[in-house]
Each structure stands twice: as C-alpha cells, then as structure tokens.
Amino acid sequence: MSTPRGYCRGRGHCGPIVLLSVGALLLLLSPSSVGHASAFSGGARAATGGSSRPALLATQSRTRPSSFRLAAADETTASDDVNKSGGFGEKAPPSAPPAAAAATAESDLTSRLLAEAREIGECAALLFGHVTKPDGAASADGIVALCDDLDAVPSVRSPDRDELMTTTKIDLRSRAIRAARYEALNKLMRRDYDAYVATASFLSPSRIPRDELPNVQDVPYPDLPEATSAAAAAAAGESEEGQPLVADCTLDSKSFDDSPLDKLLLGIFRDLVTKNTGGVSSPKAGIEGLLEQGRTYMTQPGQTAEAQHAMVKNTLGGLMTPVLPPFYRIFMGGIVPQLGTDLDGKQFGPWFYAPWLTSVVTPTFFGFLVGPSRPNTRKDGQWGGLVVEKCKFLQESGCKGLCLHQCKLPAQEFFKEELGLDLTVSPNFVTQECQWSFGEVPLSPEEDPSFPTGCLVGCESRKAMASAYASGSGERPAVSCL
Prior knowledge:
The protein is mainly α. It is 55% helix and 4% strand. The protein contains 19 helices and four strands. It has helices spanning 11-29, 33-47, 53-61, 66-85, 98-131, 140-152, 159-162, 166-169, 172-191, 193-203, 227-236, 260-276, 286-298, 305-319, 324-331, 354-370, 392-397, 400-419, 460-468; strands spanning 373-377, 383-388, 423-427, 434-438. Strands 1-2-4-3 form a four-stranded antiparallel beta sheet. Strand 3 (423-427) and strand 4 (434-438) form a beta hairpin.
C-alpha cells in the first residue's frame, strides 16, 4: 500500500518529528535564541560578503511559515536592541523627538529675549527718570544712594540667567547708573555749585572716580603731595619783581605718546611759529623745540604781551587754513558772511550746539599742544566743557608766562574775535589740569580768583631773564606772570 505524500511512514517516527518541530518553534520564540541569532548573523554576513541579518531573514521568510516570520521579526528587534545598547537586555535611552527639541530651544530663546528686553526697559526707565527730574530734586543723599546701587549691581545678578545675556556682557545696568549719577551731579552743580564741590570732594575718589565727575575745577586732587612744593615756595620768597612765588606741581610727570597726526600738526605749527616770529627756531625736536622757540621770543628785548598774543593768533589762524574759520563763523558762531547786505557781519549766534560740538572736536586736533583731554561740563552745568588731564604745554614749560601769554589769553581772544565763540581757559598750576569752557565769558587774569599771582618756583623763563638782564643792559621784556 502506498503512503500518501506528507504522511509519516511509521507512527514511531511521528512523535519525535512533532516534538522537534515544536521545540524548534519554541527555541526561535524564546529569548535565548537571540544570542544564537547574533552568532549566526555574524557568520551569515561573513559568508555573504557583509549582507545584513535583516536582509537574510527577509530572504528566508519567503520560504517559511508565518510563525517563522514572526520569530524572525522578533529576532531582528532584539538584535537591534543589543547592537544599540551594547549588551543584551539593555535598552538605549529614548532620545527627544526633533519637534520637542526645537520647541525647547525656541522657548529658551524667547525667555532670553524677554529678559534682555526687561533689563533694557529697566535701565532706560532709570536713566530717563533722572534726566527728567528738575534741578531742585538733586541732592547729596540721592547721589550717595546711586553709589550704593552701583556697588550692589554684582550681587543681584544670577549666573544661570545672566551668563549669556548681552546686556550683562556690556554692563548695561552699571552704565545706566553711572549716567544717572553724572546727571544728578550736573543738576546739583547747576542748582548749587558749592554743594556740588562739597559732595564731589567727599565722594571722590573713594566712591566716584575723578574722571567720572562732571567738572573738577575746584575739587581737590586726591592725596596730593603738596608739602614739599609749598615749603619750596615759602623758602624762595619773592621773585625779582617782588611778587610771591607759586608752588610747582608735585605730581609725577606724564609721558605723552604722540600719534602720527600729533607729530604732523606739531611740525606745521612750529613752521608757522618760525614764520610769525621773524625766524625764531630751535634745533630741539618735538614740544621741547616749540617751547624753546616761545621762550626765546618771549625774552627778546622790548617784547610785549600784545605781540605774543598776535603771534599765537596768527599761528592758530594759519593752522586752521583759510577755509575753516569762515565755515566756523557761519555754522557755529552764527555770523552772517560778507554778502553785500545790511546784515553783513551781524552775529545771531553762537548756535546752541556750538559749545558742545567744539568740545567734542577739539581733543583730536589740539592734543599735540596740550595732550589728552575729554569733554565734560562747564561750572554752570552746561555742555561745552573740556578738561585737559595734564597739560603737556604747562608740564614741559613750567612757566606761567608762557601759559598765560602764548596759550590762555591768545586762545580766548582767537575764539572770540575770529570764530565768534567765547572761551575761558582755566589752568590749575597745582595739578597741571586745565579746564576749557566754550561759550563761557572769561574773566581777566587780574579778576579771576582761581588764577594765582606770582611766578612758579622752578620757572626757567624767569631764570633766563634774570641772567640776561642782570647787568641792566638792554630793555627788559614788558611781560609778567601776574
């Protein structure tokens, strides 16, 4: 009798075949099969030239029953888990979906922008509040409170929030408080100058740096070593004219680093001085040569203060070229040019912006004569001031006569007569600072209480004149240091 296809030839063999089939299925479905599957996968890849396990299983699944396909799918998932985690049974941590990461980044950016805007708004409100206050509201207590607020700025910051903020990197809050304090000091100066001087003298430099004060004309210099100079002045007694001597500056001399522009302008200025003095020159270089030219001209027999003033004004006019003075007279001084009308030469200015704009431009073009300077405010609290930190001309000359007759007076006359703008130059012989106040009507040296009477102790010009005219020969120059 023939046996049907697919039927067991003997019942004794059917049981083991069924058991083997069931066991193989259970083996494939069991977790332990994953390890065998990985080993088999490696071998299969080597045998097939690197083909992947999923591809091999996909090929086999076409010839297997559905139960085998499920087992293969489970094997693939388990194998991927092992490969990703580095070991069996270790699941890789789930990564954030791209959409969630983008939403988080957008939220952080929004929070930062809001924090930046809030900080800018608070700083603007702080400054605006002090700018719009009336002058009468300014007080010493309010200025001290602003100093306290400035000291407290680092303690109120949050490192987690502020480390990436642009407003923190540029120190916006500290800048706003400093600007508000400057404005409060300025208002106090306009309201009561003596109260301003007292407040500034008390707070500077311990709480307010000297270069952050609106004006330093009458504010004492900190830790000034004046005992030696005062003793020297007392010991020297009087000058040859019977006038008391003025103490020299006891601060250390400043070293000046001239820019290429400074050197160019100084060379042009010296050439003009040689021309306007009738050929007076000096072999020395730089500012020392210029001062020797000025001292030689000042000590010539029969020299007058008026002649020195005219020489300096002609030199300044030549330095500004024929173009700049007329331009300045019109657009700064408000003077009508010569147009053949009844208004020719009439002054409607100076315009309101002239003092401030002049104080901003001047440091660039006059640094070769006076050294570094910065804009500040005048004693009346108005814009248009400029303070020279340590005057190069005064430091290197050590002479009140040169300062008075070849700088202060001719500069004041030149700005008033040629440019149509008042100017007051106020040198401080103790510190060698110098305040230039554009738009301020100057007092004569005899009327100015801040301008001391007498010559400096170490004045080389006085010594040179005493030596040259000791015998009484020649006409002594009719100039003095007042």
